[in-house]
C-alpha cells in the first residue's frame, strides 16, 4: 500500500511537471480554463502559506547585496532554462523517443474513461485514437517537440524567484567572513568555472543513472518502511472493513458519499456498479 501511494504521488508530480499548461488545457472550454486557473491560484496560495519565511534580521539584510552578487555568479540569467534543455536533450528526450507516441491519452481524453477502466491492446487503442483524432501521432510528435521550449520559458519565469530565495539563504546561512571567502573564490578563474558549471551538472545523465542504480535499495527500504509503520500503529484499534460496520454506519457512509450500499459493496468486490 505504501509503495503504491509513493509511486502514485511520484507519477502525479512527474505528470504535472512534464505536461505544459497550454497543451494540457487545449481542449478545455474557456470557462473550464478559468475555473482551472482559479483552482491553481488557490492551490498555489495554500502551498505558499504552508512555508512562511521569516523576515531577515538587520545583519542578514546587510549581507544581502553581497549574497546577490554571489548568486548572480552561481545562477547566471538563463541557467535554469539551460539546465532544463540539458535534461531534455540528454535524459528525457531519449526516454520519450524510446517510448514513442502513446494513443491511450487521446482515447481517455475523448471518452472520459481512465486507463484503469480501459482494457485495450496497443492496436485497439491506436484504432480508437484514429477515430477521434486521425492525426494523433503527428500531433503528439509536434507537441513533444515544443515541450523543451515551453519548459525553458517556465524555468525563465521561475528563475528570478529562485535567485531571490537563494540570495536570502546565503545571507542567512553564511557570515560576513564566509561570504567574503565565497565571493573571492568565484572571482578566480577556477571559481568562475565552478559557478558556471556546478548548477547545470544536475542535468548530466550520470545523475539519473546513479538514481536508477539505487532503486533496488530504495525498494527494499520501502518494504521495511511498511513494517515500521505497522509496528508504530500496532497498539491502535484495528481498521474496520465496510462489511464490519453496523447497518446504521453503512447507511451513514452511503448518505455522506452519495453512493448506495450495494454500489459500495460492488466497488469493493471489484465489480462495475450498474
Helix count, DSSP H or I runs of 4 or more residues: 14
Biggest sheet record? none
Structural class: mainly alpha
- Write the element-wise H/E pattern from the N-terminal end onward: HHHHHHHHHHHHHH
CA-atom Rg in angstroms = 25 Å
Large-scale geometry = extended
How many structurally independent domains? 2
Mean pLDDT: 79
Poorly predicted sequence stretches spanning 5 or more consecutive residues? 1-28
N- to C-terminal distance: 28 Å
What's the total count of β strands?
A: 0
- In percent, how helical is the residue content? over 70%
Concise overview:
The protein has 14 helices and no strands.
What does this structure look like?
This protein is mainly α. The protein folds into 2 domains: 57-227, no CATH class; 242-274, no CATH class. It has helices spanning 2-18, 21-24, 30-50, 58-74, 79-99, 104-111, 122-132, 136-173, 176-186, 189-198, 205-213, 215-232, 247-257, 261-268. Helix 4 crosses helix 8. The radius of gyration is 25 Å and the shape is extended. The two termini are 28 Å apart. Residues 1-28 have low confidence and may be disordered.
